[in-house]
Write a structure and sequence with these properties.
By secondary structure, the protein is of the alpha/beta class. It has six helices and twelve strands.
Length: 201
C-alpha cells in the first residue's frame, strides 16, 4: 500500500487524509523532515500559500520537500498547493517560497475574494465530470509545453473573465488543481493521484 503524506502545517488536512484513505492509500500527516522521508508521495492542501511557505521554512521542510519533488516524488497540490508547486507566481509576496515542479504561471486569488467563491462542473481528463469548489482560488495564466491541461472553467456567460481558464494540470509526477476535490466527497481526483504514486513505484 502506498504511503502518502499530507502537509499538516495549515489548511484542510483532515479532509485530504480521509480522501486518500478512501482511495486505498496509507495517509499520514507531515510536519517534520523525518516524516517526509518515510512517504512515497505528498499532498499540499489548500490554505494560505504565503503562510504555508513560511511555515515550510520554519519547520525545516522547505529544502527537503523541494529536493524530493525534484528527485521525482509524486506531489499533488490543491488551491494553495497549486501555487506552491508553480515555478512562477503572479502577485505573490517577495518573501514567498516556491517548491516548483510545474512549468506554469499562476495568479493568486484570481477568482476574487472569499465572497467570490463559487462552484462549477468541469470536464476533467482521465476522471470525467467533476463538481469543483473554488475558494479564493488561483488559475493558471500560462503552461509550458510539457504540462498537460486536465481541466478548464467552461465557457459561459456566468463565468466572465474566468471562462476557459486552466484549473487542473499534470506534469510528470506532479498534479495540481485550483479547486478542492477533498470537500465534495468525490474521491476520483485523489484516486488519480494514488495511481500516480503507485506508477512511480
Amino acid at each position: 500500500m502506498s504511503v502518502i503524506g499530507v502537509l499538516a502545517l495549515q489548511g484542510d488536512v483532515r479532509e485530504h487524509l480521509v480522501a486518500l484513505a478512501e482511495a486505498d492509500a496509507l495517509a499520514r500527516p507531515i510536519r517534520r523532515p523525518e516524516e517526509l522521508a518515510e512517504v512515497d508521495g505528498v499532498v499540499l492542501p489548500g490554505g494560505e500559500s504565503t503562510t504555508i511557505s513560511r511555515l515550510l521554512a520554519t519547520f525545516d521542510l522547505l529544502e527537503p520537500l523541494r529536493a524530493r519533488i525534484k528527485e521525482g516524488m509524486p506531489a499533488y497540490g490543491s488551491c494553495a498547493g497549486m501555487i506552491l508547486l508553480a515555478d512562477r507566481v503572479l502577485d505573490g509576496r517577495p518573501d514567498q517560497h516556491q517548491l516548483g515542479g510545474l512549468d506554469i504561471v499562476v495568479r493568486r486569488n484570481a477568482f476574487g475574494r472569499q465572497v467570490d467563491s463559487f462552484e462549477a462542473e468541469l470536464d476533467f481528463t482521465d476522471v470525467g465530470e467533476v463538481h469543483a469548489v473554488f475558494i479564493r482560488a488561483p488559475w493558471v495564466e500560462a503552461a509550458g509545453d510539457d504540462v498537460e491541461v486536465l481541466a478548464r472553467v467552461p465557457e459561459s456567460e456566468d463565468a466572465g473573465e474566468a471562462a476557459g481558464r486552466i484549473v487542473a494540470v499534470r506534469q510528470g509526477h506532479v498534479l495540481a488543481t485550483s479547486f478542492h476535490p477533498e470537500l465534495t466527497g468525490d474521491g476520483r481526483v485523489h484516486r488519480l493521484f494514488v495511481d500516480m504514486v503507485r506508477s512511480a513505484g
